[in-house]
Design brief:
mainly alpha
């Protein structure tokens, strides 16, 4: 049986430790940004405002990070954080939830759709549908 003993820290920048987990998030956000831009060009989608697309991506990133953290707090360790509320903000101690990230993603798309007066369904299908289709076929 394999038990990993990988060091979670890649390197230190003074008092800041750069971890593998954070690099995975950063890489996925960069990949996601360029992938969405690729989809816009490939399918000749009429994006009238590039700023609008950048706002959507920013909202999604914030939704994933905030939702992932709050999901971890609520779903996995609510009793602890109820009595140690300030530690909810200690993101450097770890703790993210896929379920919370997905909920945060959905709420971010909903917020963006309402703010820009666009169809939530169309944005959802564009981002999720094209992504899953690309990986399944």
């Amino acid at each position: 049986m394999y038990i990993h003993n990988l060091e979670p820290i890649i390197f230190n920048l003074g008092p800041i430790a750069i971890r593998w987990y954070s690099m995975a998030y950063i890489a996925s956000f960069i990949f996601g940004f360029y992938y969405i831009m690729f989809l816009v060009r490939k399918f000749s989608l009429k994006i009238t405002d590039k700023k609008d697309l950048e706002d959507l991506i920013f909202n999604i990133i914030c939704g994933i990070i905030i939702g992932g953290r709050l999901g971890y707090v609520i779903f996995y360790n609510l009793d602890y954080y109820f009595f140690n509320f300030i530690e909810v903000f200690y993101i450097w101690q770890g703790g993210m939830s896929f379920h919370g990230g997905l909920i945060g993603f959905t709420l971010a798309v909903l917020y963006h759709a309402q703010k820009k007066q666009k169809s939530f369904y169309n944005i959802w299908i564009f981002v999720i549908g094209r992504t899953y289709r690309a990986f399944l076929w």
